[in-house]
Specification:
The chain contains no helices and 8 strands. The protein is mainly beta and 91 residues long. Strands 1-3-6-5 form a 4-stranded antiparallel β-sheet, with no helix packed on it. A 4-stranded mixed β-sheet has the order 2-7-8-4, with no helix packed on it. It is elongated and about 75 Å long.
Length: 91
């Protein structure tokens, strides 16, 4: 016979570490090859010239330059026009 009452499991004691998303290099800052510009979930900011997208939608520099942001109009597959922010590198 047990001498202790059965205890349930605690569900509120585990937590995941923060992901530190957001803009890492702002408009006008210098970037070298491999620098991360934006960490994001989904493509909230799209890639322009000199910028590539990683598998987790991270934007990073593929050449040296100055980071610039602008708003561009994109047309979707259904013909709707959407405004997107674009990150690109200028010389």
């Amino acid at each position: 016979m047990s001498t202790k009452k059965a205890g349930g499991t605690a569900r509120n004691l585990t937590d995941s570490k923060p992901k530190y998303l957001g803009v890492k290099l702002h408009d006008g800052q210098k970037a070298i090859v491999g620098n991360i510009i934006v960490r994001q979930r989904g493509t909230r900011v799209v890639a322009g010239e000199g910028v590539k997208v990683g598998k987790d939608h991270t934007l990073y520099a593929v050449k040296d330059g100055t980071v610039k942001f602008k708003t561009v109009r994109k047309i979707g597959f259904d013909g709707n026009k959407k405004m997107h922010k674009m990150a690109y590198l200028s010389a």
